[in-house]
Amino acid sequence: MSAKITTILFDCDNTLVLSESLAFEACADLANEILASRNIPDRYTGPVLLAEFVGQNFRGMMVSLKAKYKYEMGDDELETYVLKEEDKVIAKLKEKLVPCVGADDVLEKLDKEGKYLMSVVSSSALRRVKASIEKVGQDKYFQPNHVFSAATSLPKPTSKPDPAIYLHAMQVLGKKAEECVAVEDSKSGATAAYRAKIKTIGYTGSYEPHEEEKMRKVLEDAGCVVIMKDWTEFEGCLERIQKGEV
């Protein structure tokens, strides 16, 4: 049976903009600072941190690192690092950020058609998400109150794969899961959308060629109903969902 899709919910990092590698450079610096302050000899590079924590926001990473290395970190210290990370990442994004190939064309076409409500649903801090879409000129496609952050928009900050930010976005937008399609590039993001009962398009275009096939399976296993390697495939993927084929 076909579904009447009214709303498209886009992840931001490495789905609309190529931000993850830039962000994880900054995160690695802070993670190493924290480990050094605890006399823990391990150190991270951006790519290693990205491989281990892709799809999580910085707060989620800090919780995972604390559990992995079994050290204490109070709320005040955590908040200090969260703010530091935002500043460092935003500085890098403002300097170097570019959109994912083809994403702008899709957003422009959807905006002109006017058939769908469009929203950004991210794990990253709201300040970072807005800085990202503003840097590449995508902010014109989204109303300011249609940009959501698991780190900032919720009463209790969280991160994907917790579905809370998707549930919150749908509540604010006045939409039901069966009206929505999400676009996600990571296991944690796809899992969050799946747990919120939203049909999801998995996007693998931001991965290196040797990782793309592996991520296709990861995203399928996380609940994505269809996978696209390139944004030129988006219309066909959406049509398949709209027709109830997947």
TrEMBL record:
<dbReference type="InterPro" id="IPR023214">
    <property type="entry name" value="HAD_sf"/>
</dbReference>
<dbReference type="InterPro" id="IPR023198">
    <property type="entry name" value="PGP-like_dom2"/>
</dbReference>
<dbReference type="InterPro" id="IPR036412">
    <property type="entry name" value="HAD-like_sf"/>
</dbReference>
<dbReference type="InterPro" id="IPR006439">
    <property type="entry name" value="HAD-SF_hydro_IA"/>
</dbReference>
<dbReference type="Pfam" id="PF00702">
    <property type="entry name" value="Hydrolase"/>
</dbReference>
<protein>
    <recommendedName>
        <fullName>HAD superfamily hydrolase</fullName>
    </recommendedName>
</protein>
<keyword id="KW-0119">Carbohydrate metabolism</keyword>
<keyword id="KW-0460">Magnesium</keyword>
<dbReference type="GO" id="GO:0016791">
    <property type="term" value="F:phosphatase activity"/>
</dbReference>
<dbReference type="GO" id="GO:0046872">
    <property type="term" value="F:metal ion binding"/>
</dbReference>
<keyword id="KW-0479">Metal-binding</keyword>
<dbReference type="InterPro" id="IPR051600">
    <property type="entry name" value="Beta-PGM-like"/>
</dbReference>
